[in-house]
Design goal:
An eleven-stranded antiparallel beta sheet has the order 6-5-4-3-2-1-11-10-9-8-7. The chain is an alpha+beta fold and 275 residues long. It has a single domain, classed as outer membrane lipoprotein receptor (LolB), chain A (Clam). The radius of gyration is 18 Å and the shape is globular. Helices cover 19% and strands 36% of the residues. The chain has six helices and eleven strands. The two termini are 18 Å apart.
């Protein structure tokens, strides 16, 4: 069976393997009131339900990881259906120092409680998917896949403890309001949709701290257009902490999204070789 890691350093190892190897919602739905709250904390806590009402969007992701003086970046792009909590991303691994990519893009399918990956890991047949139970990952899949699930990124904001308005700006030409604050992952897990409760609770226990600093950019309808989280966890072998900055951009709301999850016979049941 696929080997899963449950320790605090598990997320670091899986995420590092990606990076270095290449060198219906049932949670709280807020209120039906269309008016936006003036309090930043209340507004940000409603960000996830607002995306559910928006229906769907395209997404771009960027994950930067820094440890031991080395910094690598992974990019992703795809679509997401917030009502069904289903998404598809194509994740591009970083180039080597010469500017060449030695790995094919990883296709990721995001579903409640699960992550499916194709082209992930040596020894996996090209036509097979690797399935990971996100509730068993010490980072709740906020880091492991090389991209944060767009809806999970918004659900982190359910745990907003402090927030302030920074100013008006633009994201890709769209006027937005910029907020800066800190969210608590354990608090977020208690208010999250059913599919994200266990993953966020695992992240609260697996990271070096459950507090997550963030910058969020919301449009005039309260929809997240951009959110940047800063995660930190302890690396193995006494090598210090690993800092991860995960940025998610959302656009083209209402786009058609067709995601078909793999059939059981299409899921790889063997061991994934280390890159």
């Amino acid at each position: 069976m696929v080997t899963r890691r449950h320790s605090r350093t598990g997320a670091a190892l899986v995420a590092a393997g990606l990076m270095v190897g290449a060198a219906g919602v049932t949670g709280c739905s807020g209120t039906d009131d269309d008016s936006l709250p003036s309090d930043p904390v209340d507004l940000l806590r409603r960000a996830a339900p607002t995306l559910v009402r928006a229906g769907s969007s395209k997404a771009r992701t960027e994950m930067e990881m820094a440890t031991g003086g080395t910094r690598v970046t992974i990019h992703g792009e795809g679509v997401y259906d917030y009502g069904r909590q289903l998404g598809r991303l194509k994740v591009l691994l970083p180039h080597d120092p010469a500017g060449h990519s030695e790995h094919r893009p990883i296709t990721e399918l995001l579903a409640p409680g699960a992550l499916f990956m194709k082209n992930r890991g040596a020894g996996v047949p090209a036509d097979k998917w690797v399935r990971v139970d996100t509730g068993t990952l010490s980072d709740g899949n906020l880091v492991t896949g090389g991209a944060t699930d767009p809806f999970a990124a918004a659900e982190v904001l359910r745990g907003t403890r402090t927030a302030r308005f920074v100013g008006d700006t633009e994201v890709d030409g769209t006027p937005v309001r910029h907020y800066r604050g800190t969210a608590d992952l354990l608090t977020a897990s208690r208010a999250a949709s059913e599919g994200n409760r266990a993953p966020l609770r695992a992240a609260a226990e697996g990271f070096a701290t459950s507090r997550v600093p963030f910058d969020a950019y919301l449009d005039d309808e309260g929809r997240v257009r951009k959110v940047r989280h800063r995660f930190s966890f302890v690396n193995g072998g006494g090598q210090g902490s690993v800092a991860v900055a995960s940025t998610t951009l959302l656009y083209d709301f209402g786009v058609a999204v067709a995601v078909r999850l793999p059939r059981p016979e299409d899921i790889y049941a063997g061991k994934i070789a280390e890159d």
